[in-house]
């Protein structure tokens, strides 16, 4: 293979890119130049850069440059894509002004006003139910699963997650639940079917709500589950329980105080609440390429940021669990199913779309594995709620056995 | 019984006191006036106020006035003391300027500089080991116990707590542990004895350290446990694990950033850490009477405040558990044992001291029962620590059975 000679400028640009990537064990190849990492670790992958314009884009913003060039096929990664991304994420990096500026700009155009949220959510979740059916489990649960042991199937793990949420909340027959951001409705339907709850579930994705209503009908629980196509900010009325699984990432930090007020006016000082969300160890914007192409308006908060909007309402935090390794595992399943359906995705939506989504899923596996993102489940209760679990042992009793109500403290 | 006539001024003061207490179902009696609460709830107790000066002190600051008058015997509560205090704590109150000022003044004179901490800790924990032996369990654990079921003995519950801490940390033989604020040494000794850990434990209470050293000797673990009579701020060196049970309440919010730095320089980005502390739902000073008489320099933080000093160091929060009902139960045991030893305490330390401590213990039972205080256990890990538990199921395996190491994820 003929390899064109690289100019001094190209070599300088390669050096800039290398300094931005940090000491990752990945070779960068441009023309006849192979730039090797300054590390003892064995090289685990090679990235071939086709031309100077791609190199400039990479050097200016590795996040944006790599994402775009990988998606449109200019760049290939030789070696394991997930492992290569893990190395990049593990390496300490300093964000440059260009990436920062781009990120701030996106925050501005993708702001989560009611209209902005509608647009942001539409872009991701209304892509097509058929597309998501290609690689999600049969209940269409698009959030972190719970694997009692690492080897259970995705289907079992998603059902175990739905049950875990109900157990953490100590859900009882006849209780009313408000869910915001209900996806395709799996949790709402599960709560009605297996716990006898009466659920009102909000979502602004038209495609998801349509699907959820049909499914509730088929499941015979439509009298106990109401799906409302509306914004969480328009919620009115009281419930015993508030629950949100995988929505907080879309709320945006500016709107947390409003979410706090919605929760408090829903469950007051006596109800229970549950938040499940992708989070961070410290405040950090979402990867700019992901924000532009996958999750417009997205922001994963730290645990402290989430407590920041619960604290003013005097809520008691009862339990926090970090399930990041379960999200890595969930994403491995999704990625494997996605790869099986890759050709179909290419036929239906084009190669660029397919490669974009492969990168998003592979990058997400990597980021949860190395611990750059966390998955928090937060159980809380109103300041006067005396119906709190004595221990957490009931969470680990055999799956879906009848709850031992004595394990719960009631108003004394 | 002759009851002197109350003046219009007294009646006015009674009304002020009533407004400060809120709608509690407790009768206030002064002379021939019985002030009944404006509530439908049955009256559950009566407080007899002997004279106008006591009434003025109560009206100015119910917290201080009641604590002082109860301690020196001017005031008796007819009815169940704990239940009466629960009603007072449950009632929404507005702190007045006098109480606020008094609280700020105490914060100033009781500031937790190294010298201040030494003084504050000495006042509480160096009272006398014999005194604490009268009402603590046989391992002298002076923090919230863990009751697998509410009916186990205090001794069993304290041992279960020590084991729970070790399990949460996933402690392995040969690992090094730094403990700060180690009390009489029960946890440090337990970790060495049952988990093969090598523990260095800091404490600035001379009496406690003396006791702990003797006990480690008797337990045959003194080669693996070192007790250091020094401030947590003077900690140097690395450990695999950082642990602190019941010290954060004494650190003071001004010193949290320093504690965060101590933790990070101890375990770096790869170790694990554990904090167990009395906390709040929202920021609130400690009861001013308790601060003056029982815990000088004390401040129970919110969960968010505790995360505030972990977040800058990129720690991953893995698990948070709220055990407030277990602290109510622990305190019930302590109070019951204290009542059995009451006459001995009076003989040795005087009636005022004994009544002061009765009020502190009874008030603490009440405050945890009604949820005005929380007990948080926070497990966290360095940002590069990959040795994290897969689930929490191992915490609920039969007591002290061998750990199934497969339940732990190791560097992948």
Shape of chain A: elongated
- The structural class of chain A is alpha/beta
Beta-strand percentage range of chain A = 5-15%
User: What's the multimeric state?
Assistant: homodimer
Q: What count of structural domains of chain A? A: 2
Radius of gyration of chain A: 23 Å
Q: Alpha-carbon distance between the termini of chain A? A: 79 Å
- Mean pLDDT score of chain A, rounded? 93
| The top level CATH class name of the largest domain in chain A | Alpha Beta
The count of β-strands of chain A is 11
Biggest interface between protein chains, with counts per chain? A-B, 44 and 44 residues
Q: List the strand order in the largest sheet of chain A.
A: 7-6-5-8-9-11-10
Helix content of chain A: 40-55%
In CATH, the topology of the largest domain in chain A is named: Rossmann fold
- Which sequence of SSEs, written as H and E, runs from N to C of chain A? HEEEHHEHHHHHEHEHEEHHEHHEHHHE
Low-pLDDT parts of chain A are 401-412
């Amino acid at each position: 293979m003929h390899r064109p000679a690289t100019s001094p400028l190209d070599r300088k640009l390669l050096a800039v890119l290398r300094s931005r990537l940090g000491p990752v064990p990945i070779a960068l190849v441009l023309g006849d130049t192979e730039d090797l990492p300054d590390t003892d670790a064995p090289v685990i992958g090679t990235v071939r850069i086709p031309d100077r314009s791609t190199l400039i884009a990479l050097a200016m913003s590795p996040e944006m440059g790599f994402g775009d060039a990988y998606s449109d096929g200019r760049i290939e990664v030789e070696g394991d894509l997930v492992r290569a991304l893990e190395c990049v994420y593990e390496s300490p990096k300093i964000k440059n002004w260009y990436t920062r500026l781009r990120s701030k700009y996106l925050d501005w155009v993708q702001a989560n006003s009611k209209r902005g949220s509608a647009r942001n959510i539409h872009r991701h979740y209304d892509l097509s139910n058929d597309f998501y059916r290609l690689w999600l489990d049969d209940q269409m649960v698009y959030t972190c699963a719970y694997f009692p042991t690492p080897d259970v199937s995705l289907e079992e793990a998603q059902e175990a997650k739905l049950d875990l949420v109900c157990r953490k909340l100590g859900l009882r027959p006849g209780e009313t639940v408000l869910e915001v951001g209900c996806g395709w409705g799996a949790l709402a339907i599960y709560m009605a079917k297996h716990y006898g709850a009466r659920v009102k579930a909000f979502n602004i994705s038209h495609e998801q709500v349509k699907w959820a209503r049909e499914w509730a009908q088929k499941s015979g629980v439509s009298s106990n589950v109401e799906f409302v196509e509306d914004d969480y900010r328009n919620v009115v009325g009281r419930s015993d329980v508030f629950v949100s699984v995988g929505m907080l990432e879309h709320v945006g930090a500016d709107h947390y105080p409003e979410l706090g007020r919605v929760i408090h006016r829903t469950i007051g000082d006596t109800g229970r609440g549950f938040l499940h969300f992708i989070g961070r160890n410290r405040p950090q914007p979402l990867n700019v390429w992901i924000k532009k192409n996958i999750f417009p308006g997205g922001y994963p908060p730290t645990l402290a940021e989430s407590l920041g909007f619960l604290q003013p309402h005097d809520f008691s935090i009862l339990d926090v669990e970090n399930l990041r390794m379960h999200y890595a595992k969930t994403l491995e399943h999704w990625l494997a199913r996605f790869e099986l359906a890759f050709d179909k995705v290419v036929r239906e939506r084009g190669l660029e779309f397919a490669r974009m989504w492969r990168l998003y899923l592979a990058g997400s596996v990597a980021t949860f594995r190395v611990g750059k993102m966390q998955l928090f489940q937060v159980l809380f209760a109103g300041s006067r709620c005396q119906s709190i679990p004595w221990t957490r042992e009931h969470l680990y009793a055999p799956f879906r056995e009848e709850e031992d109500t004595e394990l719960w403290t009631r108003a004394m």
